[in-house]
Every structure is written in structure tokens, then in C-alpha cells.
Amino acid sequence: MVGLFLAAVNPFEVLNTYLVYQGCLDTPGAYCKFYVNSLESRMLNLNWAPAVILAVCLFGLERTKGTIDTLFSLPYSRAQVFHTKYWLGAAVIAGFQVIGYGLAELLILLLKPERVYFFHHYSVGEIIVSVLAFTLVASAGCLTGNTFAQLLTAFAVSIAPYLIITLPLTNAEVIFGIDMHELMPPVNAYLNNSFQYLNPITYIDTNWVSASKYILIIPAVMSIIFYAIGYFCYVRQPVERNGRFFLWRQLDRPIQIVVIIIAVLGFGLAGYSTGQTMTGYAAGMLVGGAVGFLVSYFAIYKKTKHV
Fold first, then answer.
1. HSE of 49 in the Cβ direction (CA atoms, 13 Å)?
2. Could you report the per-residue pLDDT of 16-53, keeping only the tens digit for each?
3. Distance separating alpha carbons of residues 272 and 268, to the nearest angstrom
4. What residue ranges do the domains of the chain occupy?
5. Which of 45, 101, 175, 224 has its CA 20 to 30 A from that of 7?
6. What is the pLDDT of residues 200-231, one digit of tens each?
7. Which pLDDT band holds residue 307 (cuts at 50, 70, 90)?
8. Where are the bilayer-spanning segments (predicted)?
């Protein structure tokens, strides 16, 4: 089903654009132009969603359902199981999109639109972005013990550069009363431009299409890094802790501390924004500390039952 969707969405967008154009021609006095603009697609930029679903099915549900022990009892090494799962999923995601890309190109040649905008760059980019989404969620599934932990970890990693850099800098502005934009203009320019593409979640938007064709190198490199992390975790980690948030017990406390710090900083900014006062900022930090502790405690230390 994932493959059929990915293969059909690109040619469907071209065909739908043509049908809209034909409907315009049947309207008396209407000014009609037939052009294909991939940036106007409403479905093509959702190709990452089936990739996430496939990654959860291949790498998350096996621990939530408790079937991973049976899987590892088969006469195959963990590395063989991981490579089979990963490359099967990547082949479905990339292969069927290549098929859809070719069918859409064939329709463009047959229907002859007046203009074609961003078609090749956008189609190739969506393949890379969807592979990134699959690899990120799959890697999170190799690190965690249930699907909730898998998705939550993948989301946190997708905005990690913002949480690590932008959030502390914004709090520093509030605490010290300085403006980072004026204090460090080159850094500010970097954060507002290139830095955003280090956040995997940024690629859900389509701004990368018009930014630069070399931007796609970043998600390609990130996919390789996440693949290496997922492989290492799948092969080296214990499996008896399935149902827990992290498979490695040593990660529980450090991650809980990080979650509490992020909650304190985030709620502190929220409290400061309500009245632009340090009292609101301090109250927000206190609330954030309590919320971060409770959420992290029940999410990380409470074992999830098998489905």
C-alpha cells in the first residue's frame, strides 16, 4: 500500500493539473494556462508520512508486540535482520517513487504543458527526504523499546539542533537582557538561514526547493549517520528490555535530566512571553521543571505492555 501510494502520487498530481486545465477550457471567457508547478502539490510533500509508517511497522511494532525474541531465534544474525528490514523499506520508498517520477515525466511529455517548474529537483528531493524520515524513525526504533518511545525520540531528534542551540540562546537573551541578533550578526544570519536545514523536521516544508540544490546533501548525509546509529543499536543493544523507553538502562537518567532542562527553558520562555516579566519567567521555569519531571518519569520508567 505504501509503494502504490508513492508510485501514484506524482503522476496523479500532473494528471490532476491537466484535468483542472481542461475544466478551465470549458468555462467561457476564462483565461487558462497549463503549467506544472511541483511546489503547488498538496500530496507530494506528504511522501515522508508513509516512510514513517513503514519504519514503525518494520522497527517499532516488533518490540511493542513482543515478537522480537521470536525473530532473533531464527537462524540469522542481527546484522542480517537489520539489513533486510532497512534495505527492504528503503527500496520500497525510493523505488516506487522513482517509478512515480518516471510516470509523471511520461505524462509531461505526452500532455505538453506550457511550463514546468521545480519538477525534477522536487521529485528527487522528496525521495531523499522520505528516505531521511524512514532512516530517522527506524534508527529511533532500534534505540527504544516501544512505538511511542520510537516516535517521541524521532521527533525530539528532528528538532534537536533547535533545542540544543536556539532555545538556550533565547533564554540567555532573557536572563542577561542582551540581543543575540545584534551581538553576533554573523551567527544570527547563519541561524536564520543555513542552520534551519540541520533540523530534519524542516524538510517537511518546501523551502529547501528554492534555497539551493546543494541543500539536499545535508539530508543525504544525515541519513547515512542515522543508518550507522540504527545499525549499531540493533546489533549491540540488549533486547530483554522491550517495552521500556530505552533499551540501554544507562540512557534513562541522562535523558530524563535533558528533558527536564528543556522543559524548564521552554516553559520559562512561555511564562516570560505572557507579561515580559522575570516573575513570569521564573514561574514558567518552576512549572516546566515539574512538567518535565513528571513526563520524563512516566514516559521513561514505566514499562509498556505488549499489544
1. 8
2. 888 888 888 877 777 788 888 888 777 777 888 999 99
3. 6
4. 2-148+215-239
5. 224
6. 888 888 878 877 778 889 899 999 999 999 99
7. low
8. 43-61, 86-110, 122-144, 151-170, 214-234, 255-275, 281-301
Closest CA to 68 of 142, 149, 135, 136: 142
**Dist CA 208 CA 81 (whole Å):** 34
Among residues 258, 307, 265, the alpha carbon closest in space to that of 287 is found at: 265
> Which cell numbers in the block locate residue 107?
505524462
Is 193 a residue whose pLDDT tops 90? Answer: no
Render the burial of 102-117: b for 16+ CB within 10 Å, e for the rest: ebbbebbeeeebeeee
CB-based contacts of 103-112 (< 8 A; 24+ apart in sequence) = 103/7, 103/10, 103/11, 104/10, 104/11, 104/13, 104/14, 106/11, 107/11, 107/14, 107/15, 107/18, 108/14, 108/36, 111/14, 111/18, 111/34
Helix 48-59 to helix 78-111 angle (10° resolution) is 160
Look up the pTM and report it.
0.87
Cα Rg for the chain, rounded, in angstroms? 23
SS3 205: coil
SS3 32: coil
Q: Is 35 left (phi over 0), alpha (psi -120 to 50) or beta?
A: beta
37: which strand partners? 117
Percent of the chain with pLDDT over 70: 92
Give per-residue pLDDT as tens, 93-140. 999 999 999 999 999 999 888 888 888 888 888 999 999 999 999 999
- The mean of the pLDDT values for the chain is 84
In 3D space, the residue among 176, 213, 38, 192 whose CA is nearest the CA of residue 116 turns out to be 38
Evaluate whether 274 touches 250 at the Cβ level (below 8 Å): no
Q: Would you report the helix, strand and coil content of the chain in percent, each value rounded to 5?
A: 80, 5, 20
Instruction: Please answer whether residues 129 and 48 qualify as being in contact, where contact means their C-beta atoms are separated by less than 8 angstroms.
Output: yes
